[in-house]
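We keep the chain:
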Amino acid sequence: MILSREANVALVSFIGSCAIFLSIAFLNLWYGISFLLSNIFIFTCSSIFIFISINLIYKEYDYQIAIRASFLGCVFAIGTYVKLGTPPNYENFGVYMCIMSIFHYSEFLVLALISPKLVSTNSFVINHSPEYIFAATFSWIEFFTETYFWPSLKSYFIISYFGCAICIAGELLRKTAMLNAGTNFNHLVQYEKAEDHVLVTSGVYSLFRHPSYVGWFYWSIGTQIILLNPISIIGYTIASWMFFKQRIFIEEITLLNFFGQQYCDYQNKVGTGLPFIRGHLI
């Protein structure tokens, strides 16, 4: 497969920044530098090197892609470092950082592979919505607050790894759905039918009408199981369910307008894949 220019930029930037950051991190650990000083040194050196390199290599639009991909590469590297080099109660946050960075990076990469003309800096879905940012920030506050006051709450590693397995399964389902849909996939609900837009009912779409949403729904809940955040687990479940219920309802109105009886027949054969969400039925 020939990678698009955008995919190449994102791939090189992500892997490059991750490799640089991890190299400096483990050199510091090898020479026994304290954790705090090590973190400050790693962040400063890595950031300076990465951003200077990007500025020399990429320009304008490619630069914007490279910055975001490099940032996610750094997040993945920091997550790996936190997982391997911090006290046990903080390990879960390292796994969470890795899961988050891979999700957002792969959102861009997969879309760049299947529809390079549609890809933009928004395809990383980092700034998905104010609600998304608020939910993430709240989960971080909850994690560190509970770790400080109730450290034993974060010691159920079997449950945390179960959450990681849920995230991996959800991630694989979503990316499989994106690849399965090909050029028919879009991060935004489409209100006008493109000439080459066809109804995909094969592959994972034969199991769920909205497999990408199913994957994202369980992935989002899994992130909070990784962190062992009891409040956010409940909050994420309710918020994600409400978001996808509304999103599916709106999207199915457009799909019924696009495909008519063909989509009605598909609805009768295949469910949405999400609990207690039926979609827009005629």
